[in-house]
Every structure is written in structure tokens, then in C-alpha cells.
Amino acid sequence: MQNKAVREAIDLSLDRKRIANLLFGPQSQTCCLPYSSNSLAHFEEFDNCEYDLDKARTVLEGAGVELPLEVKF
After folding, report:
1. DSSP per residue, 46-67
2. CA end-to-end span of the chain, whole Å?
3. Per residue in 5-60, pLDDT tens?
4. Which of 6, 16, 22, 50 could form an SS bridge with 30, CB 3.0 to 4.6 Å?
5. Is residue 72 part of a domain?
6. How many domains does the chain have?
7. What is the per-residue pLDDT for 49?
8. CA neighbor of 51 nearest in space, from 70, 32, 66
9. Distance between CA 27 and CA 25 in Å, rounded?
């Protein structure tokens, strides 16, 4: 997780809408920031997460990360 490219690829590979829908149903909303839209710390221009598996793979390959990537939690 010390490699910025790995963190970026993980971020790109999270299907936030699907996760929210599975956990909270079709009326759920997603955001990329840890702050709600009612918070003073929320800035709409930074709440723009992207889901793109091809881009995630490209980021990892460009950084020389060996695939498949194994992450242990």
C-alpha cells in the first residue's frame, strides 16, 4: 500500500454504486469523500470517483507492478 499506483488502482477498481446498492438498496447514494454534502469540508469538485478496471490495470502496468496483485487485509 506504500505504492501510490497501487492505491490509485484500488480506488479505480471499486464499484461504489454496486456496493452501495447491494448494502443499502437502489435508493442509496455514493460519494468519494468521507464528508456528506452537508459538511463544510465537502467540495463537490473533489467528489468525482471513477470506476474503470482497464485504467486500473494500465496504472499498475505503467508503474511496473507485477500482476496479478495480491493484497492481504
Report:
1. G------HHHHHHHHHHTT--S
2. 11
3. 999 999 999 999 999 999 999 998 888 888 888 899 888 888 888 999 999 999 99
4. 16
5. no
6. 1
7. 87
8. 32
9. 6
